[in-house]
Design brief:
Blueprint (H helix, E strand, L loop, with lengths): L2 H23 L10 H11 L5 E8 L5 E6 L4 H7 L23 E4 L18 E2 L5 H4 L7 H14 L16 H7 L3 E2 L2
Parallel strand pairs: 1-3, 4-5
Antiparallel strand pairs: 1-2
């Protein structure tokens, strides 16, 4: 076999192989694998971003200081954002399920420490209308279960009271009622 014949056979062989390769390339390609990151970002873009609250967490936590949590967070979320409670923290002394508000100060007590806020009652005996539950609000003169429920419902619907006078927006609280409780409440 001569050199020319060998080259012709080689070219023919290459043509067959290339042809076979082209034949398989006409087969449909498998569908692309979905990128989970892109899919998650698409879902996240559809969800509204919640406002961020700044909360001061002090006491028996790993990283005391100001932490950021999403609106709707509870005390447990703020403690977790501060690195979690230290061993020995007296967590049963605070309400971990209480909602947090922008600017709140949460003190996680250690053994033998008193806490500044309990059940909506602030240090000095004043009641926080933004933290107190309906039962605590009933301790105010002239505030029974119905009015206490209205205060809590208004706060949950419209957000925290900014000033004491905002209580006038609650049905059943007029100027006289507000005057009778003004010195017993705070709006921190």
């Amino acid at each position: 076999m001569g050199r020319t014949q060998a080259m012709a056979i080689g070219l023919a062989l290459v043509a067959v192989l290339v042809g076979a390769g082209l034949g398989t390339s006409a087969d449909p390609l498998p569908p692309p694998v979905a990128d989970e990151t892109v899919a998650d970002e698409t879902v996240a873009d559809d969800e509204p971003e919640l406002p961020i609250l700044a909360v001061h967490v002090s006491g028996w936590v790993t990283n005391p200081g100001v932490v950021e949590v999403a609106e709707g967070s509870i005390v447990a979320d703020a403690v977790a954002a501060a690195g979690g409670a230290l061993e020995g923290a007296v967590l049963e002394s605070i309400n971990l399920a209480a909602p947090v508000l922008d600017g709140d100060h949460i003190q996680v007590p250690g053994p033998g420490e008193a806490i500044a806020v309990t059940g909506g009652q602030e240090e000095g005996g004043l009641i926080s209308v933004n933290r107190a539950d309906a039962t605590a609000l009933e301790a105010l003169p002239g505030v029974g279960p119905v009015l206490a429920g209205r205060i809590v419902a208004h706060r949950e619907t419209n957000g925290p009271f900014q000033v004491v006078e905002d209580l006038l927006e609650v049905p059943g609280i007029g100027e006289a009622k507000l005057a009778s409780i003004r010195d017993l409440i705070v709006v921190p």
